[in-house]
Specification:
The protein is of the alpha+beta class. Helices cover 26% and strands 23% of the residues. The chain is built from eleven helices and 17 strands. Strand 7 and strand 8 form a beta hairpin. Helix 3 packs across helix 5. The longest helix is centred in the last third of the chain and has 20 residues. The radius of gyration is 21 Å and the shape is globular. The two termini are 22 Å apart. The N terminus and C terminus are likely disordered.
Length: 438
C-alpha cells in the first residue's frame, strides 16, 4: 500500500496517524476513451430500470444516485455533501447530525459551501465536488475555540491521478462486458479500481450500478462500522459480548456449533464475521452496534446510494415482508477504496480488516479462478438468487479492488463470478507483448 505525506489540521481524534487518499477513479467509456479526465460509462447491457428490471435486482435505491455528491474525509470522521439535494451530514467520533437540509447551500465553480447549525453547534464547510481536492470544515461550539478540519474530498468514482496511464485499463471493460453479456441467466455487474498507480488509479465498470441482494457482502459494512468505533475509542477488541442460544442461526459460520450462553470477544466476532462469513456473529454485532441505523448511517455518510442493511442474516420472515439488503459493485468498490486509503479507518484497523479478508475460508470463486498462490483478500456472498465475490487482488505492484456481483441462479452465478475474476487477473498480469505470466 503506497503512502504519501499530507498535512492535516487538528482533529477530534488528535494527531492520530492516517494514510491520505489513494482511492481511485472514474468508470469507463467503452466507446470513447477519454484521456483528459475521468471516463463515465457503465458498459452495455443490463442496467435495470423501473420499466424492465431483472429478477433478483432492485431498480430503486433508497435515494437516487447522483453525481453531485462528495464527502470530506478527516481524521475521525466524515462530512458528506449532496449538492443536488442540498443536504449535508457530519459523522465523527463526537456525534452524528444525521442528514441535514441546507437550503442556502452555495454551489459555484464546483464547490459546495455553507453553514448549518445542529444542536447549538455550527458547521461551516467548503467542500469541492471533485475528488482528490482539499476541503475544509469548521466546527463552532459555544464557549470553545473553533475546530478547523481539513482533508481530502472523496467521490465515487475518484478522478484518475494519471489519465494517460488510466486509459490503459479501459480495454478491460470491453473484455468484462463480453463475460457479462454471455451470462444469460445471471444479470451481472463488475467494478474494478486500480489501487497501485500502475493504471493511474483508474476505475472501470460494467453495470456498476446493478443492485442485487447483497447477501453476505453486507457484512463488510458491519465490520467497518465496528472498526470505526474501535478507532474512536468507543469499542475495544478485547471487550466481551454475551451470545445466547437465541442468537444462534444456521447457514455459514462456526459459532453455531459452540455451546451457549458464552461471552465472545469483539475481536473473534469480527474475525468470524469475515473469515467464516458467520451469520451468528453478524446478527450479534448488529445488535451490539445498536441495530440497522448505525450501519446505514455509515453507508449514508459515504454517499453510497445503492446499499442498505434492512434485515438480519437468515431472517426469512423479514425477507418475505420485502425487507432486504442490497448493494452495487460501485458501492462495494467505494467502500473498499476508502478502507484501503485509510479514509474511513485508521491504518491499524484497515490492516486488521484486510487481514480478516485474507483468512476467508469460502474460496470457490475468486481464489478458485486464479492460479494457486495468487494473494487475495475477499468476501463472498451467496443466496439462491445471488452470487458475489468482492475484495482485493494483492499482486505486488498491481493491487486492485474488485467487486463481482450477480443475480439469478447461484450455480451459474458462481461460474460468472469466476469468469470475471479470471478476466481481471489475466489482464493485470499480461505484459505489453501479450504473454500471460503465471
Amino acid at each position: 500500500m503506497r503512502k504519501s505525506d499530507k498535512r492535516r489540521s487538528s482533529s477530534l481524534l488528535g494527531n492520530s496517524a492516517r494514510v491520505p487518499l489513494k482511492v481511485l477513479t472514474a468508470a469507463v467509456a467503452l466507446a470513447v476513451l477519454a484521456t483528459t479526465g475521468p471516463a463515465t460509462a457503465d458498459g452495455p447491457g443490463r442496467e435495470p430500470t423501473a420499466e424492465s428490471h431483472e429478477p433478483g435486482v432492485d431498480p430503486t435505491p433508497e435515494r437516487p444516485p447522483t453525481g453531485e455528491v462528495s464527502w470530506l474525509s478527516f481524521p475521525g470522521g466524515v462530512f458528506a455533501v449532496d449538492s443536488l439535494g442540498h443536504t449535508v451530514r457530519y459523522r465523527a467520533c463526537d456525534g452524528d447530525t444525521g442528514r441535514v437540509a441546507d437550503p442556502t447551500m452555495r454551489v459555484a465553480a464546483g464547490v459546495a459551501s455553507g453553514t448549518v447549525v445542529v444542536g447549538g453547534t455550527a458547521y461551516r464547510y467548503r467542500v469541492p465536488l471533485v475528488g482528490r481536492s482539499e476541503g475544509t470544515l469548521e466546527v463552532i461550539q459555544r464557549h470553545r475555540p473553533p475546530t478547523t478540519l481539513t482533508g481530502v474530498v472523496v467521490t465515487s468514482p475518484q478522478p484518475p491521478t494519471d489519465p494517460v496511464a488510466g486509459a490503459r485499463l479501459f480495454p478491460l471493460s470491453g473484455q468484462l462486458a463480453r463475460v457479462v453479456a454471455d451470462a444469460s441467466l445471471n444479470p451481472a455487474g463488475v467494478t474494478v479500481r486500480d489501487l497501485s498507480g500502475r493504471y493511474g488509479d483508474q476505475q472501470v465498470a460494467v453495470n456498476g450500478s446493478l443492485r442485487p441482494k447483497a447477501a453476505s457482502v453486507i457484512k463488510l459494512w458491519i465490520l467497518v462500522e465496528l472498526l470505526r468505533r474501535v478507532d474512536c475509542g468507543q469499542v475495544f477488541l478485547d471487550d466481551g459480548v454475551l451470545v445466547t442460544p437465541e442468537d444462534v442461526v444456521g447457514g455459514t459460520g462456526q459459532l453455531q456449533f459452540e455451546t451457549f450462553p458464552q461471552v465472545v470477544t469483539v475481536r473473534r466476532l469480527a474475525q468470524y464475521l469475515i473469515k467464516y462469513s458467520d451469520n451468528v456473529a453478524a446478527n450479534v454485532l448488529i445488535t451490539y452496534l445498536g441495530g440497522f441505523a448505525p450501519v446505514n448511517a455509515l453507508i449514508d455518510s459515504m454517499n453510497q446510494r445503492s446499499t442498505i442493511l434492512a434485515r438480519r442474516m437468515l431472517d426469512s420472515a423479514a425477507a418475505q415482508r420485502g425487507e432486504e439488503n442490497y448493494t452495487s459493485p460501485d458501492d462495494v468498490v467505494s467502500l473498499l477504496g476508502a478502507v484501503w486509503d485509510g479514509e474511513i479507518l485508521t491504518p491499524a484497523s484497515r490492516d486488521l480488516m484486510i487481514g480478516f479478508m485474507r483468512e476467508q475460508t469460502l474460496n470457490t470463486k475468486i481464489p478458485a479462478a486464479l492460479p494457486p498462490g495468487v494473494p487475495v483478500a475477499h468476501k463472498t456472498g451467496d443466496l439462491p438468487d445471488a452470487s458475489h465475490d468482492v475484495g482485493y487482488y494483492l499482486i505486488p505492484g498491481t493491487e486492485t479492488a474488485v467487486a463481482f456481483l450477480t443475480a439469478g441462479p447461484m450455480a451459474t452465478g458462481d461460474e460468472t463470478v469466476r469468469r470475471m475474476a479470471r478476466t481481471v487477473y489475466d489482464f493485470l498480469v499480461t505484459p505489453v507483448d501479450g504473454a500471460v505470466e503465471e
